[in-house]
């Protein structure tokens, strides 16, 4: 009798307990590892602020699926292995409802292995390396989604403007590092496609301080356009030495660095008419961009940079997909994201079957009378060559095809035949916002 | 893609090589001095150059001092920093095995770079003073680099005069040749060490001050100069002061020549391969090792 009563009570309690979450749902907890300290701290914090503003605004509108949004953030100190551990912890221990991307290509590359393993959709707002998304068929990633434009298209605006003006010859130089190389090879590919002749292409080592010889060769090649895939100090040095050595192409464009206010402050009139490339500008007339700028300044007391806007947009895109799917189920949200076409404060969002961004436009800026003028934004013509594995890549694969976390993290070299790999920093690390 | 190399291009590159070489020679002379006198390889040489560049930058931006006039001031400031370093740290490892001095100066180097990052942030700075170039026939001679060349040549000449002619310079050379005998002859070796380290740091600082006008200033700009200076003194003969001059010029010309005839990516490779070859074929350097 007493035993029976007890049994009924337990059963009732179990039913009640099981029923509880349905009645009073807690917030949707979104986990992310962020570079709040370490090398990427400056930029990682901007991205974090983007997430925070997105959550705040979503909650003011009553949340998503009737639930509030809550971020669970850990600091990965800008270290990919730490981020791997943190995503593992977020998913298995904290049991978050969803995850969202960390800062930078290397950290994303490492973390994506974990989120794939647990089949968690991850929108990655600040990973620009093509090879994270474009992989051989047997190593495809199904649950990650790119938001920003890839490295290869940074110089596209310059090449396009030059081609439209009927310029025929281009010289391309780049720092010999991953991002700069990818941007240079993308520019070369596109220039050829547009019927331009690449008369000179060469890399230079990181930290190079004297560009006399390379510029002497460029002067001899006499190109109409010079595209330099740079960070910042090299951009300044090249521009100064061009002046000294009388290298005077009709058009001259840079990648990172050329769009920064410091660039003009240092070079003054020598910066005139030089173009730069960026993912986003505060002044762009994207829907809601002005409101975003104002809300951001009010919330954090500083101007947003593109890392803020990309973080904000990544979060908005994910929440929109959840809303449309009506569930947090990874596969259903994935289906929606693959078909989603959306305009955010960061610009257009649309991905292909690999989650690779195809709609976002780069912005090309130019210094005119000391002012940075947006001279255009470009929908990309560049697309990565198919994700098919090269024979070399096949042989390098582990024979049993096991999916060991250690292997993936420790040796991304075996991962992809693409020109851009994600071992070193992505394009964003050197752009001081 | 292949560009025909004309004599004018070679000439241009030779000019750039010589202009760069004088700067290499001056900075490397500092490293050679310390090595010659104390047998210490100063890994912090490049970071001290970086401090020189920042000193010039702050004198320029805060006091409006002409960057070229600030060269002596910067040298004086860093001379004192060098003396301080020798007084507090480096003197402890002068007679220790060479690994100890390597480790110590390596530590100092890391500390200097990170302190600079904390104090000055990683933001890039520059002194925008001279721009453009002087035309010289078919060649263009960069104004900033020409002035740097003249300064470097002048400072190096003064340093040599000092070493050759003055009592103190002779004492430094004597200590470099044989410390015990110098001591027996009544030379205050500790004092010579202090002055040598100060002087060497001042030479690095002069390099930093001149570079401040040429390249962007940031905390990590110096390390590459440690390696280049090391390369220069090994090429010329470690501890051999005229060897530093020869090595500096050689490095400048090799880097520029390799960039022209091969590719810029390979210019450093060529320089370091040459280092290995010199070490294998003529380990004492081109002009022979330490003067005895």
In short:
The complex is a heterodimer of chains A (433) and B (292). Chain A has 433 residues and is an alpha/beta fold. Chain A has helices at 2-23, 41-60, 80-92, 105-117, 156-164, 178-193, 212-221, 233-244, 261-267, 289-300, 306-325, 330-339, 391-396, 405-410; strands spanning 28-34, 69-75, 98-100, 122-124, 144-146, 169-175, 197-204, 225-229, 251-254, 275-278, 342-344, 347-349, 362-368, 371-378.
Beta content of chain B comes to under 5%
Question: How many domains make up the coordinates of chain A?
Answer: 2
Q: Just name the CATH architecture of the largest domain in chain A.
A: 3-Layer(aba) Sandwich
* CATH hierarchy class name of chain B: Mainly Alpha
Q: State the end-to-end distance of chain A.
A: 72 Å
Beta percentage of chain A is 15-25%
Taken from the alpha-carbon principal axes, the silhouette of chain A is elongated
* Number of extended strands of chain A: 14
Strands of the largest sheet of chain A, in order across it?
2-1-3-4-5
**What's the β-strand tally of chain B?**
2
Give the fraction of residues assigned to helices of chain B.
Answer: over 70%
pLDDT average of chain B, as an integer?
A: 87
Q: Stretches of chain B where pLDDT falls below 50 for ≥5 residues?
A: none
Q: What is the CATH-assigned architecture of chain B?
A: Orthogonal Bundle
Give helix % range of chain A: 40-55%
Largest protein interface? Answer: A-B, 37 and 38 residues
Mean pLDDT of chain A: 81
Q: How would you describe the shape of chain B?
A: globular
Distance between the termini of chain B: 52 Å
């Amino acid at each position: 009798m007493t035993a029976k009563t007890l049994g009924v009570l337990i059963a009732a309690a179990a039913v009640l307990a099981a029923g509880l979450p349905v009645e009073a749902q807690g917030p949707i907890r979104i986990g992310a590892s962020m570079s709040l300290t370490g090398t990427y701290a400056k930029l990682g914090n901007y991205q974090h602020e983007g997430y925070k503003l997105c959550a705040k605004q979503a909650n003011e509108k009553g949340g998503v699926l009737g639930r509030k949004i809550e971020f669970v953030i850990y600091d990965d100190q800008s270290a990919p292995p730490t981020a791997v551990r943190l995503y593992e912890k977020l998913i298995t221990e904290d049991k978050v409802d969803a995850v969202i991307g960390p800062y930078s290509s290397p950290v994303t590359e490492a973390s994506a292995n974990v989120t794939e393993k647990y089949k968690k959709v991850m929108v990655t707002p600040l990973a620009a390396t093509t090879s994270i998304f474009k992989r051989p068929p047997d190593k495809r990633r199904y649950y990650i989604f790119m938001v920003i434009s890839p490295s290869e298209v940074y110089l596209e605006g310059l090449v396009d403007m030059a081609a439209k003006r009927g310029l025929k010859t281009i010289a391309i130089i780049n720092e010999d590092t991953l991002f700069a190389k990818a941007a240079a090879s993308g520019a070369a590919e596109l220039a050829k496609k547009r019927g331009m002749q690449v008369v000179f292409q060469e890399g230079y080592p990181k930290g190079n301080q004297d560009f006399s010889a390379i510029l002497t060769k460029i002067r001899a090649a006499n190109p109409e356009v010079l595209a330099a895939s740079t960070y910042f100090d090299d951009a300044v040095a090249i521009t100064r030495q061009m002046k000294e050595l009388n290298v005077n192409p009709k058009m001259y464009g840079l990648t990172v660095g050329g769009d920064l206010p410091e660039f003009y402050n240092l070079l003054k009139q020598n910066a005139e008419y030089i173009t730069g490339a960026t993912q986003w500008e505060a002044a762009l007339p994207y829907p809601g961009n002005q409101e975003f700028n104002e809300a951001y300044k009010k919330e954090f007391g500083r101007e947003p940079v593109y890392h803020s806007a990309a973080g904000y947009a990544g979060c908005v895109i994910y929440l929109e997909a959840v809303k449309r799917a009506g569930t947090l189920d990874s596969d259903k949200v994935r289906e929606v994201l693959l078909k989603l076409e959306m305009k955010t404060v960061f610009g257009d969002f649309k991905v292909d079957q690999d989650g690779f961004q195809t709609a976002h436009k780069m912005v090309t800026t130019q210094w005119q009378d000391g002012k940075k003028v947006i001279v255009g934004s470009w929908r990309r013509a560049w697309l990565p060559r198919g994700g098919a594995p090269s024979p070399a890549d096949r042989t390098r694969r582990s024979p049993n095809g096991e999916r060991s976390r250690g292997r993936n993290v420790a040796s991304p070299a075996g991962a992809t035949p693409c020109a851009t790999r994600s071992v070193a920093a992505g394009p964003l690390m050197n752009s001081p916002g | 893609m292949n560009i025909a190399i004309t004599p004018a291009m070679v000439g241009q590159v030779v000019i750039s090589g010589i202009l760069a070489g004088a700067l290499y020679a001056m900075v490397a002379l500092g490293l050679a001095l310390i090595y010659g006198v104390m047998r210490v390889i100063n890994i912090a040489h490049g970071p001290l150059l970086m401090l020189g560049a920042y000193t010039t930058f702050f004198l320029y931006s805060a006091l409006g001092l002409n960057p070229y006039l600030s060269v002596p001031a910067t040298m004086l400031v860093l001379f004192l920093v060098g003396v301080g370093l020798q007084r507090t740290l480096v003197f402890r490892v002068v007679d220790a095995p060479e690994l100890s001095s390597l480790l110590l100066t390596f530590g100092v180097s890391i500390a200097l770079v990170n302190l600079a990052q904390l104090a000055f942030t990683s933001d890039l700075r520059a002194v925008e003073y001279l721009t453009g170039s002087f035309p010289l026939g078919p060649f263009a001679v960069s104004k900033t680099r020409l002035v740097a060349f003249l300064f470097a040549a002048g400072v190096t000449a003064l340093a040599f005069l000092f070493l050759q002619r003055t009592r103190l310079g002779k004492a430094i050379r004597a200590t470099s040749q044989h410390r015990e005998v110098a001591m027996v002859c009544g030379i205050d070796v500790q004092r010579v060490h202090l002055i040598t380290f100060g002087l060497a740091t001042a030479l690095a600082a002069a390099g930093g001050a001149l570079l401040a006008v040429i390249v962007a200033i940031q905390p990590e700009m110096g390390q590459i100069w440690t390696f280049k200076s090391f390369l220069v003194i090994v090429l010329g003969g470690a501890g051999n002061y005229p060897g530093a001059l020869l090595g500096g010029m050689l490095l400048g010309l090799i880097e520029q020549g390799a960039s022209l005839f091969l590719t810029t990516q390979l210019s450093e490779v060529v320089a370091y391969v040459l280092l290995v070859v010199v070490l294998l074929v003529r380990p004492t350097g081109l002009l022979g090792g330490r003067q005895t």
